């Protein structure tokens, strides 16, 4: 059993103006939907599948669970995901902006639905007729955050090819591993992009990956973005701008089965070998659209901005497919939030009149640290809903987001979900759910979540345990690419074909779910199993601290000692006093059991380019072990040596 130690008593209610415009306007409406799904599970999903999806051929059955946990949805239904995202909008929204792009240097492109439709078809024709790509072929997309990345994804989907987007921050070796595992036939990339005011390169990393293997690759399509010099292999490498404009702008959409693979997306595995998560077309696009409508209350006038990268599931569901299925305007931004200064995002939000904004807690904490009053310099009155994704948000950051960024009038949707779930699972509804800072609140209608103890029994109120999803849902992972045994062992071996999320959580007296961290991010202190997220949230309440990451360090007496890596807001002149004050804050918030035994004061934490803190590296540093992980994928690899040489206090 994991112990829950953090308590948050504050409650914030939705702004009546937001409630008035919401799709779900009250908790009574929410409870009715939940009761409907409980009473008539298949009827619930049948209703929404028929209402939301333009089926080319109706499905014959809602759910086939005969081979559970390999669930199948909307059996024999036919559709094409791009017709959901493009074709059906042309008559009503042809001249509406589909993608609003801003590059880090400040260049802006507005692409209408009609223009996007034409470009997707041209690229689809190129893939099909020039490069011989067929239904089921895999294409790896390794791109900066530019519109051509989304266009490439949609072009693959148009002809039934399976795309696998690899995050542009990954190294050549990581790219190679994913190309080879997918058996990809083609890579779509760019010369590079812009980051922190400078060009960075991607094509040389593709060359390096292909030089060391990747025998299945036949061709590479290259978009020119930063115009830096690159090598082009004759007969293999082709420029996008030289070929695409000559292609016809009509490409008949491939008729796909609901259970055909939409894409493969690689996510980290505990063994170190990436897992190729497979998602199916019908269920994925249904839930992407439903969650856009429920969680973001997306409407015709919205300017919606998700700051994620398309290399992650958030970019797939909530930059490309979800917004476009709803006919929304989706913002894409190429660079970092701090270039040329920490006001960049707020300046863009003011300029483009962004209404719905979705980002990661890490980014919120960074901006709060660097320039806590910066949002006040801009007119952010267009904001209505502010979302968080990727990890639990600590209450202190939540309050800053709510009050300083949102002016105390916006709903905060703290969304819990995973690469494997395809879309939001637990989230406040912006017009209905009373918000508790730090809680993802309640499961969305149709999603059934429970917390279980290690022996398989249900946890009591506020008792920590394993978060599980007890019924299947349409956008769920279908398999791990070429490894069905790993799929079953990883996600369904705990109990009765229910989905084990890998996260620890508790459910409070109001039925609100609190994510306590990954099940493997638990520190066992003298027999007490404490979630790192809760300790981090407590430490972050100390006003001198900007950011913190906590790991366990092996200890002969306690089993594990608490080791905190702390980024202070200002230079610390008296480290011992700082440590004592930090421990006092934790003792007050949680109790003496959670006091950090060791503290390293640092200027930064090892993070991926998406802002994820690499706790495995920190664990190795705390334990004094050699780091075997590839650190070239980090945003700041130089910080690792600094941390290794730092002496804890």
Give an overview of the whole structure.
The chain is globular. α18 links the parallel β29 (559-568) and β30. Among the domains are: 113-254, Rossmann fold; 521-645, GMP Synthetase, Chain A, domain 3, CATH 3.30.300.30. It is of the alpha/beta class. α11 crosses α12 (313-325) and α14 packs across α15 (395-405).
Short description:
31% of the residues lie in helices and 22% in strands. With 649 residues, the protein is α/β, with parallel strands linked by helices.
Question: Main attributes?
Answer:
649 residues; alpha/beta; Rossmann fold; GMP Synthetase, Chain A, domain 3; 7-stranded mixed sheet; 5-stranded parallel sheet; 20 helices; 31% helix
CATH architecture of one domain, by name, is 3-Layer(aba) Sandwich
Low-confidence stretches: none
The profile of the biggest β sheet is: 7 strands, mixed
The CATH topology name of one domain reads: Rossmann fold
Helix content estimate: 25-40%
Q: Which band does the percent of strand residues land in?
A: 15-25%
Report, as a whole number of angstroms, the end-to-end distance.
Answer: 30 Å
CATH class of one domain: Alpha Beta
User: Counting H and I runs of at least 4 residues, what is the number of helices?
Assistant: 20
Mean pLDDT: 94
Instruction: Find the structural class using helix and strand composition.
Output: alpha/beta
General form: globular
User: Over all CA atoms, what is the radius of gyration?
Assistant: 24 Å
User: How are strands sequenced across the largest beta sheet?
Assistant: 5-4-17-16-18-19-20
Total strands: the figure is 30
